[in-house]
Design a protein that fits this description.
With 128 residues, the protein is mostly beta strands. Helix content is 11%, strand content 52%. It contains one helix and ten strands. Strands 1, 2, 5, 9 and 10 form a five-stranded mixed β-sheet that branches. Strands 3, 4, 6, 7 and 8 form a five-stranded antiparallel β-sheet that branches. The chain is elongated, with a radius of gyration of 15 Å.
């Protein structure tokens, strides 16, 4: 619980007071790590806190992302897939798994308030 609050607090503090854009879309960029390693290939979504509207989206490449995000409070969802060595799916193709725990995507605990263009780093250190 303390770790979750720390991640949320960091997200809010990093974006508070940054410069804004006149068109309503703000530049948010940063890094994403999972258990100390950069996420090689994934995605980050900023979803409105009170709906399922996507406020912004970016691919994560080599641990970095850069998104145009609408101003407001957002739930942050981070996803990443990887091949499961030596395993195949029912069609005989390589098995791919989502390896980021649901607490960081489908059932996200991550939040950010975007009030200006800023850098927002995510260190997903916790398992489960």
């Amino acid at each position: 619980m303390v770790g979750r609050r720390l991640v949320v607090a960091i997200g809010i503090l990093l974006c508070a007071g940054c410069s804004g854009a006149a068109d309503g879309k703000l530049h948010v960029s940063g890094t994403v790590t999972f258990r100390g390693s950069q996420i090689a290939d994934g995605a980050i979504y900023f979803v409105a806190a009170d709906s399922e509207a996507v406020l912004g989206f970016s691919k994560i490449v080599a641990g970095r992302y850069s998104a145009q995000v609408a101003r407001g409070r957002a739930r942050v969802r981070i996803t990443a897939d990887r091949l499961v060595p030596g395993r195949k799916n029912a069609a005989g193709n390589p098995l791919i798994e989502q390896y980021i725990p649901s607490r960081f995507n489908d059932a996200t605990e991550l939040e950010a308030t975007v009030e200006g263009s800023c850098r927002l780093d995510w260190d997903l250190a916790a398992a489960g």
